[in-house]
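Lab meeting, action items carried over

1. Structure of the two-component assembly. Owner: GW. Status: complete.
Input record:
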Amino acid sequence: MLIIRRRVGERIVIGSNIEISVASATKKAVRLAISAPKGVPVLRGEVHDSVVAANVAAATGLIEEDEPPDDDAEASVGASGAGSR
Amino acid sequence: MLVIENTRFGRIEVDPGAIIHFPVGLVGFPEQTSFVLLEREEGRLIAYLQSVGTPELAFPVADGVMFGAEYPQPGVSTLAAQHSFTGDDIALIVVLAVNPETKNLEANLLAPILVDVEARRGVQVVLDARKYSAAVPLALTEKQSRDPDPVAEAKRRIAAIRARTHAPPVERRATAEKTATPARP
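Predicted assembly:
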């Protein structure tokens, strides 16, 4: 991992089109100004992690659907995730 | 026809024109860029966003309308503009998951999926984390909704989105015998 010392107002450029500058800093927190192309998602780490966790849970969980049809159909839903967690 | 051997649906054939492209994947799944929307059969609340490249990967989804008229904020047209989705037919679907502890169905209202139906492009957008959670118990959100019959409307819409992306309804009979594990006691 690269660690760089920056002062307020100084910038870091990632690739040719992502730029991060330090807007302000106190002992406890820094404010960063980030510019990135439209297609590049910029997220707070903990928000990103909660979305990843929700996506992983969605992909692995067992879903029992709301309205089982009259016959034996419910057996096929979500079989892949059964018992994995 | 493209054939997907799927753990949930068995073998399904998909028109390549039904594929929805996600240029940056889903959050946490950056390499998953091609999906199709499948319903187990017509008229279900829950559809599946099935990965084309990874047969075992499918995300249960429901139409965003079931979470009420106030959802999402900002609205779909604003989100579409932010992501340069220019089509007239923009769908918003919400990823569902089962909470492993409570077994409740939870909706990821923080990060819904926006689909430009005509262009067949999709993106998972992340909304304001102060307003929305990634794991909202479903029963609660249904009660909160003021739409007179959000569930019926959500079913109608998810079927309509699938129909418009030309993905086939899945023949449940073809798969149930082979892959079945009893889902309920």
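2. GW to write a short summary for the group page. Key points so far: Chain A is about 20% helix and 20% strand. Confidence is low (pLDDT under 50) at residues 66-85 of chain A.
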